[in-house]
Amino acid sequence: MTITLDNLHLRVGDFELRADFQIEAGHKIALLGPSGGGKSTLLSALAGFTDPVGGRILHGDTDITNLPPAKRPVTLLFQDHNLFPHLTAEQNIGLGVKPNLKLSASQKQTVREALARVGLQGHGTKRPSELSGGQQQRVAIARALLRDKPVLLLDEPFAALGPALKHEMLDLVAEITAASNTTLLMVTHQPEDAHYLADQTVLIAEGVANAPVDTKTLFANPPAVLQRYLGS
Amino acid sequence: MIRPILFAAGLCLGASAVAAQDKPVLTVYTYDSFVSDWGPGPKVEAAFEAECNCDLKLVGAGDGAALLSRLQLEGARTEADILLGLDTNLTARAKATGLFAPLTNRPTHLDVPVDWTDDTFLPYDWGYFAFVYDKNKLSAPPNSFRDLINMPEDFKIVIQDPRSSSPGLGLLLWVKTAYGDKADTIWEGLEPHILTVTKGWSEAYGMFLEGEADMVLSYTTSPAYHLIAEEDDSKAAASFEEGHYLQIEVAGKLAASDQPELADQFLAFMTSATFQSIIPTTNWMYPSVFSQDGLPAGFETLITPNESLIIPEGKAEAIKDEALAEWLAVLSR
Amino acid sequence: MARSSQPLSLTRALAGGGALALLLALTLGTVGAVWSKASFQAGLGPADWAAIRFTISQALVSATLSVVLAIPTARALARRRFRGRQLMVSLLGAPFILPGIVAVLGIVAVWGRTGYVSTLIGTPLNIYGYSGVVLAHVFFNLPLATRFILQGWLSIPSEHFRLTAQLGMTTGEVNHLLERPMLRAVVPGAFLLIFLLCITSFAVALALGGGPRATTVELAIYQALRFDFDLSKAALLAMIQFALCTATAAATLWIAAPQGFAVGMDRPARRWDGKSRRHVLTDQILLLTVGLFLFVPLLSILLKGAPNLLMLPPQVWPALGNSVAIAITSAFCAILLSLALSALIVSLTARWKRSAQLLEIIGFLSLAASPFVIGTGLFIMLNPVVDPFKAALPITIAVNAVMSLPFALRVILPAMSRAEHFYGRLGNSLGMTGWTRFRLAIWPRLKRPVGFAAGLSAALSMGDLGVIALFAPPDMATLPLTMYRLMTSYQMAAASGVALLLIATSLALFWAFDKGGRLDHHIG
Description:
The structure holds three protein chains of three kinds.
Chain A: E1 3-12, E2 15-23, E3 28-32, H1 39-47, E4 54-59, E5 62-63, E6 74-77, H2 89-94, H3 105-117, H4 133-147, E7 151-154, H5 163-180, E8 183-188, H6 191-197, E9 200-205, E10 208-209, E11 213-214, H7 215-220, H8 224-230
Helix pairs in contact in A: 3-4, 4-5
Chain B: H1 2-19, E1 25-30, H2 32-35, H3 41-52, E2 55-60, H4 64-74, E3 82-87, H5 91-96, E4 100-101, E5 121-134, H6 145-149, E6 157-160, H7 166-179, H8 183-190, E7 194-198, H9 201-209, E8 215-219, H10 222-230, E9 235-238, E10 244-254, H11 260-270, H12 273-278, E11 286-287, E12 308-309, H13 316-331
Helix pairs in contact in B: 7-13, 8-13
Chain C: H1 10-36, H2 46-79, H3 85-91, H4 94-97, H5 100-111, H6 116-121, H7 130-155, H8 158-166, H9 171-199, H10 203-209, H11 217-227, H12 231-255, H13 277-305, H14 316-351, H15 353-362, H16 365-368, H17 371-382, H18 392-429, H19 434-463, H20 468-471, H21 479-488, H22 492-518
Helix pairs in contact in C: 1-12, 1-14, 1-17, 2-7, 2-9, 2-13, 5-10, 5-13, 7-9, 7-10, 9-12, 11-12, 12-15, 13-22, 14-15, 14-18, 14-19, 14-21, 14-22, 18-19, 19-22, 21-22
């Protein structure tokens, strides 16, 4: 289903951002722009952590502007703090199935399958501190997988990882989203990430989030705002 | 952040510098309310220093019993020349320490309700313990302990704990001297009327002024404060048929004093008209020598007990322990 | 904890050891001094055993009740935003610092026979007895417990709440997942502090306890020192207080489990749970009830004192200056002591866990120390060396600092241990050492708790009559001493004005330090 940002107006302190466009289902979209440009703020608003000062967010025909975070059709992977440090990897994933962690045998099996799907067989009883940074984000991806929301939002969860590992993660995300036809919105400030994964790009700069355009077309013929950002 | 420390250190240095003077220093240990700005201390100090060419150092700590404990801790090394503020319930314990010197001079005349024969301590003021009430709220106060016992159940008094307060101990001995072996039955009768027992006089008197209790254990002279200082004549002391227990406050000279002549001079000054005229309206007690003009206006309104009760010095310690045990046994039930 | 934390350096060992020595000298040392002067050895009589039983019983009940009420109160304050919330949190510091006599009169004005409640229901209440003691202790300590537990709530990273919101957790599930582990880490310490505060209560317990049934060990010590001059008994009873302290401290620290939460990025906490009508309503009712319970007595003190504020005797102002100087210096010393001790404990935890725990228990000792024994013991120790009166100021500052150390330690130690754990390694990895490492890696994480702890100890020193009453030269009065002197001179009205001034100044100090700790909290 389509996500509609209808005259959305966000304000955090002195910072303001406006967005007025639609996102079609199934696309992989990069949110590109300078640091502090409002990329994370936009995701935060989509996920229900930042209240807009004006405008609406629609999922299909449903107004989700005032829904609590968990009721929204989205999962947001944060830059950090995606896991509870005092719970094991399996428990952290299990929270995506049942927040009170009282899992049935079949649900436990589902959790183990998700763990295997992200390549972490046998790591289920470890706590986040015993896992590497990449492994920690894999656990978070496994949980997102089980939550099975139509939209996945990535707020630079792989920023701390090396280039090879990062591509590995992006591949994993691409594979999972493709299988379930999930819409993906991904924050980045590196054009190569956009090229690598995203078929569309939303340019966010100077207080405005522009409508998504085809990534190749965009870079082939960059508008002035993008040129300024790229420094060319 | 370093500044407060420097400031504090500066204060210390300043304080010790001031103390260094050439005049002979007479050190008097006394209770805290005596040295307070609202007590007799400042006036006494000014008056004595005007005639002695010395520095009178009043050191205040706790109350009478705490003073004595402190002196016992210091022993013969004490800097004190005079200890001022014991009452007759403590003089036996004080003499037993062997730290006090006998009096060299005794005044020819004392206005104390008993014959004063003590050879070590000299009285500077006195008063009677009594229950104080508000005349506007209570028209017919009890006139004896038995009368008090027979008051309605909701008639409440606040008293002080004998273990931590001089008036509290005074009440204990008051009941004991008035009723002897029957003291415990009196306490049993009083028990339902005792709203609470406080650590010191201030808590009890404060609660009484709040209207929390009908009467409070204090002194027959307490109403004089309200009358003279506040022009409030609503407070009165209830006169008890059994008589009232007498508190006589005394001072004595330390045997180890390095200023024995000055100490004698101070004791003589203590019963002089100058010192005695300060007492009634600062310590709110009767002076031990009345002035020729009589007592300050207002004191004539105070009740005069028909009998002065007091335990002879030698027996105080033993009776005190026995009475305290009785009191604890009855009130702890 | 990982072994990668800072090794035990000489500086740390010396500073921590010095703090420890001062603490032990003022607690066990003073008892030893009193003991050394004892001429005969006395045993305990039935009255003493009754006092011990009463002391433990009332402290257990008071501490339990305070903590049980503080948990929902702190939760309501943590998850509600309302006008006056900040004021309420600030005023939570007020009851705790009231001088006993002022608190008693405030409580009596509300709950007494002629108090507001009696007037309202038309029949005189009688609170005097066990219930009065507990009422007073809950009045004193509920706000303190609430502040401590609220601190625990604020230490849960806001990112965790964000995650629970995304996962759609119910209020109960958030409670189970985040709040219970936090409470398990924080509540035992808060309970212990309050238990120990109630152990040494004396004047308040007696006044509202209705008679000698409410005799505490502290009163027995006072009696032994003042009335009987029985030093051996005083020392024995003081040791019993320390034994109680050690046993309770060991038990609570054993129960307490470290919570192991991550350190957040200091995003302002926002909550998505507890939004149902039922939760909102219960929180509102709770906050209103607790607010009335705590603040009406304060209001009565305010109303009584305010008219007298303009007619304060001139002696009040130098006393105010003395008190503020003492409070600030004491707070500064208390922070230095607890930083030194915390650093030592954190270093030791990696290698010698047992000795670190022992130090933590010793850190509580001064709470169980009787001020009378400290005063008397110090007197015995110092008198041959220096005139205690000339040293009144440094003595008062040292004693105040050590007396507030348990509070400061409770706040600073967990914060430092977390900062070391999460940021110390970062500092190490960047090659930071010594002062630079502390200033850049650890201190920023400590500012907030240090501000809170400094505020607490300044306010505590401000309101405490303490040892200055035993040593004060006549020209060196503090504000509480001036208040007591006014009272013993019948000047109750002026005393009520001084009481108000005292509370206002204490709160101002508390507020200033607490605020100072969070000044640049929202940057970044």
